Input
Amino acid sequence: MLKKTLELYKFSLLLAVFVATAILALTVQKNPMQIALVILGALVGAFFLDLDYIIHAYFLESESDFGKSVTGFMHHKDFKGLANYIYYHKNALKEKTLNSAIFQLVLGGASVLVVSYTASNFAKALVISAFVNSMYRLAEQHFEYKNTADWFWAFKKAPDKMGLAIYCTMLLAMLILAFFLL
Output
């Protein structure tokens, strides 16, 4: 199970390791407990966006085939099967709540606020890792599927190439600001 999970989430976990390393380097943590909290927060942030599928299965579309399958995996505690099912059916949902431009903007603003006002290293690592993984998911949507309309479902229309470039530049600026405020 661990090998398959690592294979499915290798890039998200790599980004989480990068975030944890950057936070530890910028904050110079000496307490082993704080180091562990940063690493744990970054790893939880790598999987945070997958809660979207569980939200859909339990609250938004519980009667759909996707919702019934996800709740079945959860009921039987088959987390390996759940991870595989979500990975291979991730494009079955069109209007995702956590994998969207609106949540991404909220997450970017939250990352700046949490880094500015929170002393908890776990919270800082969690929010920044989730934000970086959200940026990766947008890039994956754009480059792999050549379509970002599902990402911008809440807006009237998806931005053109220039609008997407401006949006990504704004996200990158928020990330740099968050790291600068550490």
Q: What stands out?
A: The longest helix spans residues 121-145. The CA atoms of residues 12 and 46 lie 5 Å apart.
